[in-house]
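Form P-L/3: holo structure prediction, ligand manganese (II) ion.
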Amino acid sequence: MKRLDDILSGAGRILVTGHVRPDGDCVGACLAVRAYAAAAFPEAQVDVCLEPFSPTFDFLKGSGDVIAAPEGAYDLVLVLDASSFDRITESAVPAFQTAGRTFCIDHHVTNTMFAQETHVEAEASSTCEVLFGLMREDRIDAEIARCLYLGIVHDTGVFKHSNTGERTMRIAGRLISLGAVPARIIDDTFYAKTFVQNRLLGRALVRAQLFCDGAIVCSWISKEDLDREGAGSQDIEGIIDQLRVTQGTRIAVFLYELALNEWKVSLRANDTVDVAAVAAEFGGGGHVKAAGCSLSGSLNDCANTLLERLAQEV
Ligand code: AMP
Ligand code: MN
Ligand code: MN
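OUTPUT (holo model):
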């Protein structure tokens, strides 16, 4: 197994990137690696390229230096928390295709091994948990610890999803010792909701319907809903988590419309149903209990297609 120092060493220009619509794990992982590389390899130039992300992550070191589109050639492109080529930050794709080396560090069971070299730990809670294991602990300062802690908090839903293991908790404990402040990170970046985010959550909950004798709960937010609230895709995060805790349900389905008739689908399983496998059938992927895909068409057609397929699982 290669350690992060081995992966980074020898590269003059390094690009770190993640997946489209970056979440806490993706942003935390990218900024952690940037801060780590900058300290360990001061002669290297390390850029982070990501799509816009939640402003609640702005307190992380290096968030202000994230670039929208990389320029020139890179010796190494490191892709974090992205499971397939079509999930890479779009503006980073040319740099990925022309890079001297490409390396992917991830925790998705559906990783397609799209990079030249890949390190996947499918049982890890998050890419940030994987990174902790690849980093030299004496190089993890308080800034890096905050980034990694934030990523673990977001991908475990604050240590409550089934991907939270003993190792996750041990690492989180170490990160607190190294300087991460749990209360601030958990409240300010995970639980805090804007007024508009709460309104969208309310709308989705009022609209939710049960299918298959209550085994499946499904709701949606349309582009029109988002436009009416002046909201974007980062404002619907957390809705699927609230749907998932509906008592008696085995699968939660949430659709939101990115552009007219272009739907992003989130799937969550409460028991043994493998939603990653179902998502993969629709060109998506993810984890056994948390997965997603994209569908084109009317809301009715997309929802019916999904519900018919999911009905076979319950
Ligand atoms: P989400 O429902 O967007 O929070 O995603 C849940 C999990 O599924 C995450 O780990 C994502 O990386 C993965 N995922 C979501 N959408 C896709 C997709 N279109 N293709 C592959 N993986 C996805
Ligand atoms: Mn992610
Ligand atoms: Mn992740």
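COMMENT: The pocket of manganese (II) ion (ligand 3) is lined by residues 25, 81, 107, 126-127, 155 (CB under 6 Å).
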